[in-house]
Specification:
This protein is mostly helical and 122 residues long. It is built from four helices and no strands. The two termini are 41 Å apart.
Amino acid sequence: MSPTLGLVTLATVVLGSIFTVAYSLRFISGAFSTKRGISTSPAVVEMKAPSALFLFSPAVLSVSGLVAGFLTANLVTYSLPYIDAFPVLGEGVAPKLGGSELALALSVLAIAGGATLFFADP
């Protein structure tokens, strides 16, 4: 593949991602937000709040994810022997994913561009 064709393909994918983010935000907003000038439907008014048992599973997952985030430093001590078995860089140097800077920048561009399109549309 020629470099020009590669750049055109990359730009097309990023542009498609921008439109996908904008459309997804519009879909979520249209499906779940309160609309100006439209009254709440009777079906929504008559809905009952979910029971505590229904909310238990997502609550356990949320709390365990939060706790795991704080335990990460403690988990590193257990994983250091495995990490040291595969030396990539010098000691004390944090490894980076190769080429992740461009991918991260393009992802941020797609999300920011999609959000800009969504909020710019009245």
